[in-house]
Amino acid sequence: MEREQRSILLLGGSRQQVVAIECAKRLGYHTVLCDYLPDNPGQYAADVFYQESTTDRARMLEIARAEGVSGVLAYASDPAALTAAYVAEELGLPTNPLASVETLSTKHLFRRYLSEHGFPAPAAHPVTVDADPSEVAQLAATMRQPVVIKPTDSSGSKGVSVLDGPDAEEVRRALEAAAAYSRNGVLLLEEYIRAGFPRVIGGDVFVVDGEVRFWGLMSCLRDEELGGLVPIGERCPSGLSAAQERAVREQIQALVTSLGMRFGEFNVEIIVGEDDTPYFLELGARAGGNMIPVQLSDISGVDLIEANVRYAMGDSSLDVAFDGSDAAFATYVLHTDREGILRGVETDPDIAPCIYRSVMYVEPGQPVERFDGAGKALGIFFLRFDDVAHMEGMLDGITRRIRAVVS
């Protein structure tokens, strides 16, 4: 008798998430996709598609029961990670604790958790979207400057403002910018962390039985002409000293242990402070965006997309062990500083041989927007270099070496 095909519920069908759907099908699973967008590309790869919001927990649970799924995966999605943990916990499927996922996914809860459990953290205060700007400005004046105002439940650096000695009008604009990306109505006012290491540490780690087995630490590229807040790529190796990396690893493992995390890929954002103390910006309970798992799979030889799918289905047979690499790789997020129509992409001859893969999200002739969040990326370029010195030379001025032509 032929064995019944097992089903997996995949939450989100964006271009970045299609790889997880295709991988699940390759592994022989029946793929059930949910996404509220009618034009999501994932629906053409999945076996079954529901046009439903992945943040509607009750509806996702209803669909999961109806489809008899054996696993739930919110690949590279912060909002859906909460839903995935909720549905899996309700159905007794493989998951990390919902309470811990909620802590990691909600910035003011995360900041409070860090402070209460002895992790380094900046002073922070939650405020509501309708808070009086004058009162928030007065509160900000009692804190070390500069300060940051941001949503507590968004990702990709959307709605984040850095203010130095803010007045009520600056705070009003920052509150409005953050509110535009807030679903829960709670924003965060916190002290800006002054960095000792020049780049934010990013990348992903993979946990097995509560232990970090895959160390994919990188550092983030930023476009200072656009404010320097939104990552425009990642480079590997990170550039950390041995002592700095050891401290970063110790903090990540300590937080994973403290929260009782069991398995899966986690997205890392850490600032190494002026005293070499690592400060968490985020530890996302999901694979990183901007195709970070694809890049790390290239570097490590470990198929992280497959690992995400297998572990969500309770299959821990794939060995994910990786302790970092000295090989020089980077990704570059193609973007533009203005609205218009994409006409094409220009690459300088010196960097063209370093590009070994590119994935475009927007095609020539389509409209584009100014890059102020990860959702406005035009595409991803994957680069390989001879060594670190070669990489650093090519990444210097990367925004001029790979250019979107917009009119």
Query: Oligomerization state of this entry?
Result: single chain
Report the helical percentage. 25-40%
Using DSSP, what is the number of strands?
A: 19
Shape: globular
**Roughly what is the average pLDDT, rounded to an integer?**
95
Strand composition percent: 25-35%
The total count of helices amounts to: 12
The biggest sheet, with number of strands, parallel, antiparallel or mixed sense and barrel status, is: 8 strands, antiparallel
Tell me the strand order in the biggest sheet.
13-12-9-10-11-14-18-16
What is the CA-atom radius of gyration, in angstroms? 21 Å
Cα(first) to Cα(last) distance is 61 Å
Structural class: alpha+beta
Low-confidence blocks of residues:
none
Could you characterize what this model shows?
This protein has 12 helices and 19 strands. Helix 2 crosses helix 3, helix 3 runs antiparallel to helix 4 and helix 6 packs across helix 7. The strands form 4 sheets. An 8-stranded antiparallel β-sheet has the order 13-12-9-10-11-14-18-16, sandwiched between helices. A 4-stranded parallel β-sheet has the order 3-2-1-4, with helices on both faces. A 4-stranded antiparallel β-sheet has the order 5-8-6-7, sandwiched between helices. The protein is α+β, with helices and mostly antiparallel strands.
